[in-house]
Specification:
about 240 residues, alpha+beta, Alpha-Beta Plaits, Transposase_17
């Protein structure tokens, strides 16, 4: 029998880092029309289910989003609606049938403050890491243009951690521009990827403990592989 799915970690008022990949890493966007249609269905689904979108990037075979749902379960409904409508549109345009996405989307609950801002940078720097653009603002399908004041994007609701970068829009833009110039440290990149892989809660130990107490679910990551047979008491409890 297949293992039951672990409940998705969600907590009111906290954003989630979301990623969804094409099946077998196949292309999920082929031409500009695909990107535009995805954003159209994204805007419609998130508005209908009251999910605030803080950052996004659409890559060739996957997407990254940072979003805060109004209530638990709203994100799954919005992503389900988005998926159905986009896949139908994609299949009709490209004369194909069948699934497009690799299973259900992955999500990682994110603590506010610096963690949310780090994930926002991670998302908008993705095209640079993939060598698709020299600078994040050179890539068209991203929320970075809104955050840098290059154009108004009605899809984007700036996260409070972004708004806290300055008392006025010009100051926030310049501060964020400098943050984008500096790539994320390797340990932050590794943490963001591992917490997403395990679909846990990226944040401080205090934040994770609070979630575990309130939700009854594991919030921190677990080491890869089997535990050592000769683990000491300190190892097993620490």
């Amino acid at each position: 029998m297949p293992m039951p799915r672990r409940p998705r970690l969600e907590a009111s008022g906290f954003p989630l880092h979301i990623t969804q990949r094409g099946v077998n890493r196949a292309a999920t966007f082929i031409d500009p029309g695909d990107y535009s249609r995805y954003l159209h269905w994204l805007a419609e689904a998130f508005a209908e289910h009251h999910v605030a979108l803080h950052a996004y990037v659409l890559m060739g075979n996957h997407v990254h989003l940072l979003a805060t749902p109004s209530r638990p379960g709203a994100l799954s409904k919005a992503m389900g609606q988005l998926g159905r409508r986009y896949v139908l549109s994609f299949n009709q345009r490209h004369e194909r049938t069948g699934t497009l996405w690799e299973g259900r989307f992955r999500s990682c609950l994110v603590d506010s403050d610096r963690y949310a801002l780090a994930v926002c940078r991670y998302i908008e720097l993705n095209p640079v890491r993939a060598a698709l653009a020299a600078r994040p603002e050179d890539y068209p399908w991203s929320s970075v243009h809104h955050h840098l004041g290059r154009r108004s994007d009605p899809l984007v609701t700036p996260h409070p951690s972004f708004l806290a970068l300055g008392t006025d829009p010009r100051q926030r833009i310049e501060t964020y521009r400098h943050l984008l110039v500096d790539s994320l440290p390797d340990e932050e990149l590794a943490a963001i990827r591992e917490y997403m892989r395990q679909e846990r809660a990226l944040g401080s130990p205090r934040f994770q403990s609070m979630l575990e107490a309130s939700l009854g679910q594991v919030a921190s990551t677990r080491p890869r592989g089997r535990p050592r047979k000769n683990a000491t008491k300190k190892d097993s409890t620490g």
